[in-house]
Every structure is written in C-alpha cells, then in structure tokens.
C-alpha cells in the first residue's frame, strides 16, 4: 500500500473548521483514501473514505485532489471532543488488503 | 457504524500466564479480522490477519506460537498471548471488515499489563 505523509500536529480553535492535509503521491489507481481517528486509549474510529470524488458525511468532508496525490479532511466545526490523532491511510479494496497506520496528525482543539 | 466488541478492556496478569482477548462483530459478519498492537505514543502495528475457518497470517516479526489467533466463526476472533512477559504489555486492538470489504471497524482495545 502507498505511504502517506501527514503533519505531526495541528491546533484548531473550537468552532472553527479543522483542515487536516495528507500527502499520498504514490497512490495507485484502485487505492482508496481512508481517514480514521483515535482518541486516547480507545480503538480507532472510522471517519470517511473515498476513491476520487469528494465525500461528505455527518462527521466530515474529504477533498481529494484531481491527481489524487493529496487529500484534506475537513471537520467543519471542531469541538473539544475532536481532539485526537487522525490517520490518513491508503488501501486497496479486497478482504486481504490491510490497513497500515502511519504516524498520523495529533489535532488539539482549544477554547 | 458497525459495532465490534472487544473484551476485556484491561487485564493485569503475572508473568508466565496466558491471556485471551475476545473480539466480536455484533451486527455484521466479519470474514476477516485484523489484530493490532500499540505501544504508548506510537502508531498501531498490524500483528496478523485472521480469516474465518483458516489459519491466521502473521506479519513479519510476530511469533505465531506466542500470539495464538482463532477465528472459528464469522462473528468471533480470539487472540491468546501465551506465557506472557512484561515486554508483551501493550494495547491490543482488533478490527473487523464489513461485508462490502470497504470499511474496517475497530474494537475498543485491551490494555494488557504483565507484572
């Protein structure tokens, strides 16, 4: 699976949009971009995933560039409970395909 | 989202004992489950891939005789840490893949402390 690059940490004021970037310049044509987050001492939580089109759900929006070499996860109105480590992962479809975690971005939401 | 139940959430054991961790998919059938471990302030490391009814596939460097994985049904996978030692102390997390093979959902994790 392709590797991803994310900033180590980011801060965001509560109520503002949090934009978390991810670089995946070696992504293959059939690989999806997934975002998970992990709040301290809990299992990772699925946020969103996409292939080439932008995606939105109740939690976040995912913007994938046209060349698919990078993407941005947008939390439209960050709250203190969004403080977590956010992982951007690329993965091929199929049961045998693993989800390989990088180092992620530690997002700190502040008052 | 789909629910994966993992038990126990925390276990403390003496060195040399074995510990079993259960992972259940409550509202979906997971043909494939993955087991991860995580050290403090580190990312998740994949240990093994578990397929229902067949032997698990272990990642390089993970001892299969140390970490026994059983995936006897579509809703249950277990990880047994045999003859645990202090260096096995870690956060263990399981995940199951939904039928569409697109999403993985994770259990809440098990914090293992070996004294």
Number of DSSP helices of chain A?
0
Instruction: Name the poorly predicted regions of chain A.
Output: none
Structural Rg of chain B: 13 Å
> Count of DSSP E strands of chain A?
9
How many helical stretches of chain B?
0
**Main beta sheet of chain B, described?**
7 strands, mixed
Question: Structural class given helices, strands, pairing of chain B?
Answer: mainly beta
Q: What kind of assembly state do the chains in view correspond to? A: heterodimer
Shape of chain A: globular
Rg of chain A, nearest Å: 13 Å
Overall structural class of chain A, as computed from helix and strand content, comes to mainly beta
Largest sheet of chain A: 5 strands, mixed
Order of helices and strands of chain A: EEEEEEEEE
Strand residue percentage of chain A? over 45%
Largest interface between protein chains, with number of residues from each side = A-B, 23 and 27 residues
The percent range for helix content of chain A is: under 10%
Helical content of chain B stands at: under 10%
